[in-house]
Amino acid sequence: MPSPWIAWPQGADPAAARRAAAGAHEAFLCTGRATGIRPVVLDSWRRCARSGVDPERPTPAIALTDEQLHRQRRDHPLAAVLPLVRSLLVEPAADAGQIVALGDAAGRLLWVEGHPGLRRRAERMGFLPGACWLEEEAGTNAPGTALALDHPVQIFAGEHFSRAAHPWSCAAAPLHDPATGRVLGVLDVTGGDHVAAPQALALVRAAAAAAEAELRLQYGPPAARPPRPRPRRAAPAATRSARLQVLGRDRALLTLDGRTRDLAPRHSEILLLLARHPDGLTADALAALLHEEEAARVTVRAEMSRLRRLVGDTLLASRPYRLTAPLATDADDVRRLLARGAHRQALRHCPGPILPRSDAPGVVEEREALAREVRAVLLRHAGPDLLAAWALRPEGRTDPRLLQAALRALPPGSPRRTLLAAHLAALGGV
Fold first, then answer.
1. Could you give a GO molecular-function term held by this entry (predicted)?
2. In terms of pTM, does the model score above 0.70?
């Protein structure tokens, strides 16, 4: 039996395989059914259709700004294996007619390297650093499908859900933390038909195994790892109880030691950002997350001084600015409920987006990240009624993909179809 993860077996005719894939793709788009295609690809097409992916959309979304991309490259664990990947795959790729990409667990490409001409061609279909290549964003593709299934896979020509990717073939493998087993990201090789040959997937698998071994060597087993330095904490911190509510609220609600108070918008943003960065932020880093334009340190210091007078010295510390006790948020509650599969409870606990009126870059990033996580879980797991309920919320009514998925999921006679179609039409979706 040929492996389901390999695009075509040794000795196959790539031209015939390309024609077969293109025919199956056309049949699926017309009828929702296809024959002569690998089950792993057909299942992916079905997921993409349920997610509302448009096969005619030329490029996926850019998920990281230049600044966010710089931070991810600097801080991501896979930065440690980049030299190895370059020596194993990128340098040989200069003459092999292919490019090599490393992405994070959210499907966002962090590095795309290799043949300059191929890179420029790939950029025209959105295959570039900062772009999101999850299945629900870019359709069936090797990096996105490898992450969806947590398994190495090849995607060949017309097996891609997006027509813009049909000239390409790719092979990808997920990369795991050797200590915990969790997915850290994905390694991908993209090029012509030769990337769909069986030996190409074997090469990517071997490179992924070498990268994971390199991580193990660099960081060692958990018991051997040196303890990570932690900021000094104020003595009373261990007994403090703090909670921040930010969903659907312009002014966060802080509950601290049994007392609850509304916060000013700027203080709401600061506490949310510090909660998301438990190791702390310098004044410059906090300023960058709070302001689109460059902000003076004195502005941040003044706001922190006012916030400290409000909540006390035992919750906030400086150099760097950080929390001295855990600060739970209602956004984290929603994430936990989604992870447990308690989708209806998550809906009840999510009255709206994170600080919806805030335009602070760091808050916008958190708001959009939660929205993406919620949508991804719903599109994969939610039933028609729950999907429609989310789509008819204020934030769902501006999401064409969610509206389309809910329309497809509801039975023809459902009265909610009219509302969903009206909102989709208002967005230019019909």
1. DNA binding
2. no
